[in-house]
Hints:
Elements: E1 19-22, H1 27-38, E2 43-46, H2 52-59, E3 63-65, E4 78-81, H3 90-98, E5 101-104, H4 105-113, E6 117-122, H5 127-140, E7 146-153, E8 158-161, E9 167-171, E10 186-189, H6 197-200, H7 203-215, E11 222-226, H8 230-241, E12 246-250, E13 257-265, E14 268-275, E15 278-285, H9 290-305, H10 310-318, E16 328-333, E17 336-341, H11 346-360, E18 365-370, H12 374-379, H13 381-388, E19 393-396, H14 412-418, E20 426-429, H15 434-442, E21 448-453, H16 461-472, E22 481-482
Parallel strand pairs: 1-2, 1-4, 2-3, 4-5, 6-9, 6-10, 7-9, 10-11, 11-12, 12-13, 17-21, 18-19, 18-21, 19-20
Antiparallel strand pairs: 7-8, 13-14, 14-15, 16-17, 20-22
Amino acid sequence: MTAQFTPAGTLTAEDLGTVHLIGVGGVGMSGLARLFLTRGVPVSGSELREWPSLAGLRALGGTIHMSHEASNLDGVDTVVYSSAIPQDHLEMVEARRRGLRVLHRSEALAAAMTGRRTVAVAGTHGKTTTTSMITMVLQQAGTDPSFVIGGEISEVGSGAHHGTGEYFVVEADESDRSFLIYRPYVSIITNIEADHLNTYGDLANLEATFAEFARLTDPDGFIITCADDAGGRRLAETLRAEGRRVHTYGESPDADLRLTEMVSSAQGVRYLAAIDGTSLGEFRLPVPGRHMGLNSASAVLAAYLLELPLPAAEAALAAFPGVRRRFERKGVADDVLVYDEYAYHPTSMTLALRTLREVAGDGRLIVVFQPYRLYRTRDLQSEIAEALAIADELVLLEVFGPGELRQPGEGSAALVEAVPLPAEHKVFVDSWDAAPLEVARRARPGDVVVTMGAPPISLMGDQLLEALSAHAAGGSTAGGGVTIEGTVPGAPTGGGAVTPDGAAPAAG
């Protein structure tokens, strides 16, 4: 385990006193702040830019400082930081100088989970969606769970809640090994693929760490993995050989919870589920994508093993509204549908783009992609390029890599050349504002546009809709794109687009 993290123990949220969160505007940090505030824990936080979550935190009584200053720590007992905050950050330095308790976000979250039965969801893909589905199933069953999710459930409008029930649902982040802090009652591993190799070095080490996480599960609880995923299957075999309680789900014939007759369309997903040969009935989701069906199956299996009423699971999934930044519909303009999608790993990109193809029907799919992290874009360039080739038209922005130094030949200029699309159907734009204009120039009625990738790209949806509307009204749409035959003057070299402090989740 990484040395600076302390395993969960007996520390509670109330033991933390007044809590200050550095970079409080990001999804993960703002969710934790919301949880503390609704639990009655005094909270302050610091940011450099206004972020949508901050108004809600202020309304709950949080104190938000729009600067980083030593004085922000006056009256504070505990300072919380994420992996995106460097150790030499001035508030971190000041906290240590004053002798304050300093906790990583995961350590503070573990304190909030003390005394609850934790359901921890880990995996390379699908964590946020799966965590959201399980939360809604528990809510529908009347258990009033607490939860902290790395995204916002669209219907709830929040990624965190302090509930009165025994369960606490949490998205467990493997990117920095901090998920090893938790002591779950239920551990769910959706899949295991090569990612965050800047931390783990290779897939074998990553898989070994997921196994270590699973072994932290309460002996009275259980572990759930996906039988359709090679990494999940290997993990299940390893843990079962150790005598641990492991249950699997998937379309594989030997899955404990087996899915059959799965159908995905633009209207959603449906499948039949059976456990050990006994039918559990049909389950439906109003969101498309076979991967969504698989994610929901883990929630069904968890509900079954926790002896919750399955009609509650069926009803919750049938009403599942989706998660913000996961296949989120932003609007329509000039008869062009605009979506936003968080995917940036090639596997999740492929799944999302295939689903969007179903939605597009006879229309074309236009992808606006901002890669997330230079190391991932470099190491997985061919796989990312292959995923992007699912698009009919590609508009590519520079890599978002806060704190990373770009070496010659790295970044989106190299990536766009690797995408196997005709030159006239792909373009690297040299500025944020050029992307919506380029999309409007290329789009036709009936097309589907998706913004995809790093956190800042989620902010482009409204600009895209405005540009499409202006194009329909005969406005200017002179694109700022630069085709791959030329160079890109003024392309950023230091870390991609500007984003509010702390907005990028540590999972990058």
